[in-house]
Amino acid sequence: MITAKTKVCMIIGNPVEHSLSPQMQNAAFSALGLPYIYVACQTDDIKGALKAIQLLNIAAVNITVPHKVNAIKYVDVPDPSVRAIGATNLIIVRQNKLYATNTDVIGAVKAIEENISVAGKNIAVIGAGGAARAIVYALSKKGAVISVWNRTKRKAENLVSEFHLKEAFDLENTKKLILEDIIINTTSIGMKDTMSQSPVPAESIHEGQIIFDIVYAPHETKLLQLAKQKGAKRIAGYKMLLYGGAASFEAITGKKAPIEVMEKELLKYLR
Ligand code: ATR
Question: Fewer C-beta neighbours within 10 Å, C or N terminus of the chain?
Fold first, then answer.
């Protein structure tokens, strides 16, 4: 039941109406009988929105596109992951102060490490934007050997130099991809308007690899279809959303997240 004591959480960004976080988080709050609700609020004004959140004593906000980078300018306490990545996706309000963290990092590592330990593995990261930054930060801390492929090679080179990675490639130059143990797509290729495209050609994929696509809608992207045809192990994009969401839930409530409930709820909408 919603009462005057109910704590409000939200996801803020633009667009947000497609977000599955409200369904996933509300299912989890309700499974544990916790006094929270979770809504989605669209805004273009991240500075104003964060001020309002502080004034209204909102419990926590997840931050999504396009505010993950700009939001850090307005928080009181960014944690080390936020400072290293330069982006936040979770702000918790405590004693009127905004504490920022990044649960994308936890989501990405868990999605991969429930399949394989990344230490010493050769990993190809496709893309060099915000999502790629969170992923290379997390995986390089775990001892992975990472190279970056990007349409704009200069951005791949910058990422490689900043995080002391192995090598940067133009996305067109796919020759060496076949040698990688794990390939992770962090670009938007494969989403709605590019559904028929894969960021990686079929020739670069083989049976021994793990292919992780962080695009979660459609549920089976073109890249994951190619991986299936080649007999490679696949990690679906919703896993990062799920484990990142579970980490957000735990940071907000201090309770262990009911993962099965959250996964079931997500898959209801994704399949
Ligand atoms: P996000 O926060 O989701 O990572 P972003 O910071 O805008 O978003 O980064 C998007 C990434 O996807 C970039 O690496 C981008 O390549 P560029 O650096 O060349 O722009 C990549 N990307 C997006 N659309 C692409 C497309 N159609 N083909 C190739 N790469 C694409």
Answer: N
The Cβ of residue 46 has, within 10 Å, a number of other Cβ atoms equal to: 21
Backbone angles phi, psi at 170, to 5 degrees: -70, 145
| 42 strand-pairing partners | 13
- CB 128, CB 169: distance < 8 Å: no
Phi/psi region, residue 211 (left: phi>0; alpha: psi -120 to 50; beta: rest), is: beta
Distance 128 CA to ligand 1 centre (A): 7
DSSP 8-state class, residue 99: E
- In ligand 1, the atom with minimum distance to the C-alpha of 151 is 19
Three-state secondary-structure class, residue 269: helix
Among the options 5, 51, 68, 256, which is catalytic?
68
Residue owning tokens 């073109």: 222
In the sheet with 210-213, reading across from the earlier edge strand, the strands are 167-170, 145-150, 122-126, 182-185, 210-213, 233-235
Query: Using one digit for the tens of pLDDT, what is the confidence trace for 162-220?
Result: 999 999 999 999 999 999 999 999 999 999 899 999 999 999 999 999 999 999 999 99
State whether the Cα torsion 41-43-46-47 is positive or negative.
Answer: negative
Closest Cα to atom 12 of ligand 1 = 187
**What does the block give as tokens for 78?**
């960014």
- pLDDT, tens digit (0-9, with 9 covering 90-100), for 6-50: 999 999 999 999 999 999 999 999 999 999 999 999 999 999 999
- Ligand 1: atom nearest CA of 197 is 27
What share of the chain in percent tops pLDDT 70?
100
Instruction: State the distance from the centre of ligand 1 to the C-alpha of 154, rounded, in angstroms.
Output: 13
